[in-house]
Structure formats: structure tokens, C-alpha cells
Amino acid sequence: MIKPNQFKFPTHTALTIALLLGSSPNAFSHTRLEVPTVAENLRISNNVVIGHGCGDGTNVIAHSVVFPDGVDSIVKVNGAPTTDTIDVYVTNYGNLYQKILNHSVFKDEDEKHDANGNTVGYYTRDGKSPDYYATYVPFRAGAMAIEPASCAKSVKVTLGIADICKITTKAGFAEGIVNLWTPAVGSEYDGPGLHGFNSPATLTVMRDLVNNPMDAAACGDGLDVEVIPSAAQMNRDMPIVNKKGTQIWPKP
Ligand SMILES: [Cu+2]
pLDDT digit string (tens) for 229-238? Predict the structure, then answer.
């Protein structure tokens, strides 16, 4: 009899195989959203899917997520940075995301709020997601409305995510300790050289071209817009601060 365990191969072997086959490794393992693309004006429940731990035998014990706040966020149009704020392309940006309470894996969680009370991320902790599991962490993505006067045909929201296997200081970030699925924006959470470097999860909102048509003459094929958390926001909002106000990750 073959034990089920024998079918299991190390995640990074799976990655290597995926790369050799020329297919996307994302389907195998990286931390991504369950639903990566959604229509505008549609509120959905979604999940961050933690695809693996930090190597064989490790557990993800805590998880930290940041959504771009739209205040000082980086905005790109067709891949090029612009000085436009996201309000040029989205009519209701801000407080679009809510954590959905769930203690099935992580026993403690809370949203992170900015000075305006908007949810800019969340954390989950006090759990164990084994390396060979896919763990779903639920949140609600509010209905985003694309600015009718703009030529945006899609808006891609980039998240910053940390899957933490061991609580350390920032200096302790390393393979086997933490996976940083963050945009490389020059923050303390870029994680150069780590497995997830500059490989963030994203949620793309597609314009409803029937009910919110673009001006064909002015817009042509339309614009692909991106909103990405700034380095300052990442530094401010990535840490896990418990309900008593004590920062528990990274260790101060
Ligand atoms: Cu991976």
C-alpha cells in the first residue's frame, strides 16, 4: 500500500517542475487570492489562499495583509507610474475591504484601520497552517466603481502579504522564517532574495463596458490601471499589533 504521504513532494520541487514545464507556478503554491478577477460594482467574498509554509515541516503561524490605502498609493497606467491619484479612475476607493471573521485556523485576528477608520489590512495569528496545506483566509471585497469619465478598463489592486512561520525582528527575515508576498516598493518588507520577492497577490476589477461604457473616441482600447501600497504605508501597516497595542511582529 502506498501511504498518501508519499505523493507529497516539497513545494519548491513542485515549483521547479512547474517552471521546467513552462507553466505558471502560481497554481501550485504561491499565496494568491482565490478570486483574482472580479467585475466592477460587485461585492464578493474572497480568500487569501496561503499556498505553503516556509519549507518542509514549517507552519504558517501568523499572516499579515495590507491593502493600498489610496492616500499615498503608487498608481500606474499601462505599467507606467503616474502622478494621478486613484480617485481619477475609481469613484469610491477607500474602505473597500473587510475581514470576514473566521477562527478555524488562526485563533486571533483583527482588522487594521487608518486615521479615517478605513480598513487598510488585517492580521491573523495563533494558528498553524502546515507547509503542505492550502489555507483560506476570508475577507470581503466591496463593490468598486470605475470612474465613468475615465478611460480605465481595469483596475488592479496589489496587496502586501506576509506568511510568517517564525516571529523575528526584521533583521531575522529569511527563507524558512517568513514568506513576503509584497510589491518591491522600497519598504522594509520587500524581502529581496526571498522566495516571494516582488510577487504579490492582486485583485483586478474589470470595467462593466455595457453599463459603464468608455468614450470610444477618447479612450481607444482603454487603460490598465494599478494601485500599489506605498513604501511608507507598507512600513506603517504591515506589522502585527495586537488589541492591547503591542507590536508582536516583527519583534521591535
Ligand atoms: Cu511559492
Answer: 999 999 999 9
